[in-house]
Amino acid sequence: CKPCAKDHYTQYWNYVDRCLYCNVRCNVLEVEVGPCNETHNRVCECKPGYYTESLFCIKHSKCPAGSGVSELGNALEDTQCKVCPQGTFSRNHSSSKPCQPHQNCSAQGLRVNVPGT
């Protein structure tokens, strides 16, 4: 036995007479989360703002106005949206912001001019 050369690895004990080449390369939409070393090939995942779907990195969905983020997207899952419940709102398309509560006018000694929707 001898250590694997640079850019080569063997993950399991075996009878193979040579190490495997680290053939994984991260593309422009990925970041390296595990380097090539003597025991593992390089590991990549989608960069922030993207998630993996069928081996491709897809930009996280933006929730439409009237909906807010219920679960932030990550490298493996898309953003989850939900319709803003009564008393909350969202006027922007966003992949990171939840629904916001309406301003409580009466608590500030003000009158409601236009009710929120």
UniProtKB/TrEMBL annotation:
The keyword Zinc does not apply. Gene3D superfamilies: Tumor Necrosis Factor Receptor, subunit A, domain 2. GO terms for cellular component: extracellular region. Disulfide bonds join 4-19, 26-44. SUPFAM superfamilies: TNF receptor-like. Keywords: Apoptosis, Disulfide bond, Glycoprotein, Repeat, Secreted, Signal. GO terms for biological process: apoptotic process. TNFR-Cys repeats lie at residues 3-44. It is found in: Secreted. Residues 3-44 form the TNFR-Cys domain. Its main location: secreted. PROSITE patterns: TNFR_NGFR_2. InterPro entries: TNFR/NGFR_Cys_rich_reg, TNFRSF_decoy_receptor. PANTHER family: TUMOR NECROSIS FACTOR RECEPTOR SUPERFAMILY MEMBER, TUMOR NECROSIS FACTOR RECEPTOR SUPERFAMILY MEMBER 6B. This is TNFR-Cys domain-containing protein. It comes from Micrurus lemniscatus lemniscatus. The lineage of its organism: Eukaryota, Metazoa, Chordata, Craniata, Vertebrata.
